[in-house]
Amino acid sequence: MSWLTEAADEIARQGAVVRVTVVRADGSTPREVGAAMLVAADTVCDTIGGGALELAAISHARTLTDGVRPLAHTVAESLNRRGEGADPVGKPQWQRDVRDFPLGPALGQCCGGYVRLLFEVLTACERDDLISAAGRCDEAQALLLRPLAGGAPLHVAVDRREHRAGWPLAVTRVVRDMLSGARPQAPVLARGGKGEPGWLVEPVSRRRHPLYIYGAGHVGRALVRVLEDLPFTVTWVDTSAGRFPAGIPPYAKAEVVADPAAFAGGVEADAFHIVLTYSHALDLAICLSLLERGDFRFLGLIGSATKSARFLKRLSDLGIPDGQLTRLTCPIGLPGIGGKEPTMIALSVAAQLVQLATAGVRPLATDATIETERQRRGA
């Protein structure tokens, strides 16, 4: 669910909500550009980093809604009447406010950076537009854009060729580049027109990387548990429904397939893969299928250095070239995190996956994998 839908729901419950977004972050700051939270009368959803900055932001957000927040039951009553042909709740105002926070001098935070926050007041007047925008944002690449100044509506862009009157040239270029793939999709403050404030351009949802986990045993279960809220779309694969736990987390999709190796051969390119099934033969077949394709982002195999050496030998005998073999990572997980308990392994692997996903580069083999490959070749 996007923040647009969350905001619409909060408006129906509490009358108004303020979205607080980091639009500039210089030096050492609690969060990055694009971090946001929703502040209502009695609730706060998400965070911009906590501490004194967040407390000040929450206080200011609630001050902005003091004069415009109707009682929750009044809003609900108005929304219900509209379904019976009553007059609209009101004209959208798109009230916005921008505040700068030098963290050291103003708030006494030792990180000492500088943050600019955008406050957007959203009430029943804007609720229909939020719902409409959410409906246009089904596509994963949809962008939201609007000026920092108040009064202008929220725009949704889903086509790189899209341009509307009033969009500054810099905004049009950012939209074109992000939707064409020439520029990573990430929140950015684009320049406005001459003498005008900037525009915030942001993806509707953060990028999530496809991750396939093969095996629903103890380590597989532990790994899926720790992936909540991490930037992955999780597909969990095993040969039997009985191997999965009773409850599959909502952020993971279970796939029962008779032939996981064939399944792996048909998934999308540039995905992450973690192989930890109950069978070494099945592990080998999955790794062989993926290495023959070669278009994965990461391939990790659970096991020791001894297992790694044996698999590299077998895969080589099956025709996988040396250059491709170095892309198989075994053992998996970050070095320095000890313990063989499933949760310890899961934490180490999850940290490794996040490190690779946020680095934006294809990983090299681990030191252990490189060493075993040298031993195999007698180097």
Question: Any overview of this molecule?
Answer:
- Helix content is 37%, strand content 21%.
- The protein is of the alpha/beta class and 379 residues long.
- The strands form three sheets. It has a six-stranded parallel sheet, with helices on both faces. Strands 3-2-1-5-4 form a five-stranded antiparallel sheet.
- α9 links the parallel β13 and β14 (298-301).
- α1 packs antiparallel against α5, α7 packs across α12 (342-359) and α10 packs across α13 (367-377).
- It is elongated.
Please render the helix and strand layout as text:
Layout: H1 3-14, E1 16-26, E2 36-39, E3 44-46, H2 51-65, H3 72-82, E4 95-102, H4 103-107, E5 114-123, H5 124-136, E6 143-147, E7 155-157, H6 169-180, E8 188-190, E9 199-203, E10 209-214, H7 218-226, E11 232-238, E12 252-256, H8 260-264, E13 272-275, H9 280-293, E14 298-301, H10 305-317, H11 322-325, E15 328-329, H12 342-359, H13 367-377
Parallel strand pairs: 10-11, 10-13, 11-12, 13-14, 14-15
Antiparallel strand pairs: 1-2, 1-5, 2-3, 4-5, 6-7, 6-9, 8-9
Q: How would you describe this structure in keywords?
A:
2 domains; 15 strands; Rossmann fold; disordered C terminus; elongated; 37% helix; six-stranded parallel sheet; 379 residues; alpha/beta; 13 helices
How many domain units? 2
Oligomer category? single chain
Order of strands across the main sheet:
12-11-10-13-14-15
Rg is: 25 Å
Count of β-strands: 15
Largest sheet: 6 strands, parallel
Per DSSP, what share of the residues sits in E-state strands of 2 or more residues? 15-25%
Order of helices and strands: HEEEHHEHEHEEHEEEHEEHEHEHHEHH
Tell the overall outline.
Answer: elongated
Query: Count of helical segments?
Result: 13
| Class computed from helices, strands and strand pairing | alpha/beta
Q: Unreliable segments (pLDDT under 50, ≥5 consecutive)?
A: 361-379
| First and last CA, distance | 53 Å
Helical residues, percent: 25-40%
Tell me, rounded to a whole number, the average pLDDT. 86
